[in-house]
Design goal:
about 400 residues, mainly alpha, Chr_Tranpt_l_chain, chromate transmembrane transporter activity, transmembrane
């Protein structure tokens, strides 16, 4: 009996290490191949984690996306952290973030030191990657729409969300839209909710989760106070600016750019010209757009500045996801929450549909040849079922030929 118990205890760390290495490997692959911005990332995640590896069922993935869309911060990175935490605990969330984020941080810091002012925005292969993003998001919308908006009512919610997203642009419109969709879903489906998805094992204690939420709030309040009191040096001032930028942005992605510009340009850390050059470089690399902070931090303070800025802008996202996940299963099992999530998930499909048009379609599909390439890539993904990295290479090559 003792011998059996000893074998079990010894086997546990090996299992955890294997799970962590698995999460790190898959997330790094996604970090190297996920072009196209946060909406496209959700498509890549859906294809890799749900369709291919089945780490999470369709409903649970949709619920996690809805949760992360509601939280401030980079939604796609938060979804990745959440999937890593479900798969391999707290450290799984951390290594999932490292794998998905580090490749683009390294590339952008290299841009900061070696390629300042190099114009990559008009390169043909970058335009091809934008077309890839169109195909990836279209595939995700097709799959999620069939599952999450299969009837007339939810399809109507999805279309209404798309219309509102396209015509009402404010910093908080997406959050208000999700709240409204949740209220509609609760009212319509509170008495006929579907069976909840499989309960997920989340190896994070509620005590730790509450501490994470408290730490998020304390840093958000204390850092500006220390800075205004003159207690913050250069490193702490940099940390404060990027932490607040990561804490106050809903929807992530391009929404954070004006906040970052107001933080770094007036302070003299980065010139306006270098800011725009870095933004162009950010479009050329895979991974989350928030890694633009690595470039700005490198411009402001070299490698230490890059590390401080990157950690600061992503820390709120990590604290919020870790703080919310342990309460997730309980919330999902509530009939009222299930009804609200049915409405929210339909709205998420609509938000993705709106993003497929703007900014993806409007910036990538500029003529018949672009549309033809997008159709070819979509068929390769959906019907030929080629892996996304092959479609990325095909899109980049097609963009160079078109260019």
């Amino acid at each position: 009996m003792e011998h059996s118990k000893q074998e079990t205890v010894q086997g546990t760390p090996k299992g955890r290490i294997a799970a962590l290495l698995e999460v790190l490997g898959v997330s790094t692959k996604l970090g190297l191949t996920s072009f196209g911005g946060p909406v496209a990332h959700l498509g890549y995640f859906h294809n890799e984690y749900v369709r291919r590896r089945k780490w999470m069922d369709e409903q649970s993935y949709a619920d996690l996306v809805a949760l992360c869309q509601f939280l401030p911060g980079p939604a796609s990175s938060q979804v990745g952290i959440g999937i890593g935490a479900v798969r391999a605990g707290l450290l799984g969330g951390l290594v999932a973030w490292i794998g998905f984020t580090l490749p683009s941080v390294i590339a952008l810091v290299a841009f900061a030191f070696l390629l300042q002012g190099y114009d990559v925005a008009g390169a043909g292969w970058i335009h091809g990657l934008k077309i890839v993003a169109v195909a990836i998001v279209a595939q995700a919308i097709l799959g999620m729409g069939q599952k999450l908006a299969p009837d007339r009512t939810r399809a109507t919610i999805a279309v209404a969300a798309a219309v509102i997203s396209l015509t009402w642009h404010t910093a908080y419109s997406q959050v208000l839209l999700i709240i409204a969709a949740g209220a509609v879903g609760w009212w319509l489906y509170r008495k006929k909710t579907a069976e909840p998805g499989p309960a997920l094992h989340i190896a994070i204690s509620r005590t730790f989760a509450v501490c994470s939420l408290i730490l998020f709030a304390v840093l958000l309040i204390a850092l500006p106070l220390l800075r205004s009191a003159g207690e913050a040096g250069g490193g702490l001032a940099l940390f404060d600016s990027f932490y607040r930028s990561g804490s106050l942005v809903f929807g992530g992605g391009h929404v954070v750019l004006p906040l970052l510009e107001r933080e770094v340009v007036p302070a003299g850390w980065v010139s306006g010209e270098d800011f725009l050059a870095g933004y162009g470089a950010t479009q050329a690399v895979p991974g989350p757009l928030f890694t633009f902070a690595g470039y700005l931090g490198a411009m402001a303070g070299g490698l230490p500045g890059a590390a401080v800025a990157t950690l600061a802008i992503f820390l709120p996202a990590f604290l919020l996801v870790v703080g919310a996940l342990p309460f997730w299963n309980g919330l999902r099992s509530s009939p009222a929450v299930q009804g609200a999530l049915m409405g929210i998930n339909a709205a998420v499909v609509g938000i993705l549909l709106a993003a497929l048009y703007d900014p993806l379609w409007t910036t990538a599909i500029l003529g018949p040849l672009d549309f033809s390439l997008a159709l070819i890539l979509f068929v390769l993904l959906v019907f030929w079922k080629l892996p996304p990295w092959m479609v990325v290479l095909a899109g980049a090559a097609g963009g160079m030929l078109l260019g």
